[in-house]
Design a protein that fits this description.
Blueprint lengths: L9 E4 L2 E5 L10 E4 L2 H9 L6 H15 L8 H16 L6 H15 L6 H31 L6 E5 L16 H8 L4 E6 L6 H13 L3 E4 L4 H6 L5 E4 L3 E3 L4 E4 L2 H10 L4 E4 L5 E2 L16 H4 E2 L2 E2 L12 E4 L6 E4 L2 E3 L3 H13 L1
Parallel strand pairs: 4-5, 4-7, 5-6, 7-10, 8-11, 10-15
Antiparallel strand pairs: 1-2, 2-3, 8-9, 9-14, 12-13, 15-16
Helix pairs in contact: 1-2, 1-3, 2-3, 2-4, 2-5, 3-4, 4-5, 5-6
The structure holds 5-S-methyl-1-O-phosphono-5-thio-D-ribulose.
The site of 5-S-methyl-1-O-phosphono-5-thio-D-ribulose has 18 residues, from α2 and β9.
Protein name: Methylthioribose-1-phosphate isomerase
Keywords: Amino-acid biosynthesis, Isomerase, Methionine biosynthesis
Pathway: Amino-acid biosynthesis; L-methionine biosynthesis via salvage pathway; L-methionine from S-methyl-5-thio-alpha-D-ribose 1-phosphate: step 1/6
Length: 353
């Protein structure tokens, strides 16, 4: 099974939380134990742990670990500290809805429980974080099952950024159909965009696909049009960080370029995600907050300065692909097609049943 070979982004065992430091991949596989809210906040902000579902999982466990020191306090005080810490962890990255979704789920669990002791409540919250992790595993497996139906023998698949095992609990979202198709014995090629400026495609996607034995070819972001024009790409599958009610979709910067190209070359473009990425409180892509990151990520490459001193830089971490460029969403409930305003809302109701 492919699963055995894949790296794990977040490990929680015997009350100890560790993140694989993805800033060091692919050269070093180092797990860093997480102790304080400040450390967890920084690990998320610095992308030691990254990818929408993984920062949700990290935030949920991170919150639980952070409030353990309050287990001897009265329940009111415990919940007050839980909310304060949750808000703080939520503020580490704004675009992916999964972080606030998971942290708020832990807080709501606490608010809806009737324990008289904070110690007992803490164990309940630990179980809730485990539930989030285990549910994500099942969701990713189902995304893989539905998404694999879109992959045929001899296909070329283009992906952008990393929406694989490193971005979730296990398997991935965009990469899960690829792992499932591999397990089913299909033969295909994957093209991974390198994904400037932080190279999630080169450092992470190439690394995990190669480790799993997938036929993967790395291309620079500006080579996608070439690959499509040469008939190398039959389908595009990417992940996503937040989907607005109308289907506009935030994902790693450069995703919109790929969607525009796919539209030009008439190649189907799919976004894969758990239904928790659908945010019906955000009406359109214009309402999605886009994280702006430090200019040094653009002016430097591998620690070497590659632009003049004092250069003005624009460094948005995400862009929003307009819904009309998206062929469908691959979710744990199946593939969702337009009209998105209706069909995404239906999926959210399914999830709440
Ligand atoms: O900045 P990152 O590396 O966290 O960005 C990650 C992405 O854009 C992924 O495609 C997205 O989170 C989906 S992960 C299953």
């Amino acid at each position: 099974m492919v699963t055995d070979k894949l790296p794990k982004a977040v490990i929680y065992k015997d009350g100890k939380l560790s993140f694989l430091d993805q800033t060091k991949l692919p050269m070093y596989e180092i797990y860093e134990e997480q102790h304080t809210p400040e450390q967890i906040y920084n690990s998320i902000k610095m992308l030691k742990v990254r990818g929408a579902p993984a920062i949700g999982i990290a935030g949920a466990y991170g919150l639980v670990v952070s409030v353990k020191k309050y287990i001897n306090e009265p329940v009111d005080k415990f919940i007050m500290e839980l909310k304060k810490t949750g808000e703080y962890l939520n503020s580490s990255r704004p675009t992916a809805v999964n972080l606030s979704w998971a942290v708020n789920r832990i807080i709501q669990r606490a608010e809806n429980s009737f324990f008289n002791s904070s110690n007992e409540l803490w164990y309940e919250l630990e179980r809730e974080a485990e539930n989030i992790y285990n549910e994500d595993k099942k969701i990713c497996a189902n995304i893989g099952r539905y998404g694999a139906e879109l992959i045929y023998d001899n296909f070329g698949i283009l992906t952008h950024c990393n929406a694989g095992a490193l971005a979730v609990s296990e398997l991935g979202t965009a990469l899960s159909p690829i792992y499932t198709a591999l397990n089913e014995g299909k033969t295909f090629k994957v093209y991974a965009d390198e994904t400037r400026p932080l190279l999630q495609g080169a450092r992470l996607t190439s690394y995990e696909l190669q480790t799993a034995g997938v036929d993967v070819t790395l291309i620079c972001d500006n080579m996608a049009a070439y690959a499509m024009s040469k008939g190398l790409i039959d389908v595009v599958i990417v992940g996503c960080d937040r989907v607005a009610a109308n289907g506009d979709t935030a994902n790693k910067i450069g995703t919109m370029n790929v969607a525009v190209l796919a539209n030009y070359f008439k190649i189907p473009f799919y976004a894969a995600c758990p239904s928790s990425t659908f945010d019906n409180m955000t009406l359109t892509g214009n309402d999605i907050v886009i994280e702006l990151r430090d200019s040094s990520e653009v002016t430097h490459f591998g620690g070497v300065q590659t632009a003049p001193d004092n250069m003005k830089v624009l460094n948005p971490a995400f862009d929003v692909t307009p819904n009309e460029l998206i062929t469908g969403f691959i979710t744990e409930y199946g593939i969702i097609k337009p009209p998105y305003v209706i069909n995404l809302e239906n999926i959210l109701h399914k999830g709440r049943k």
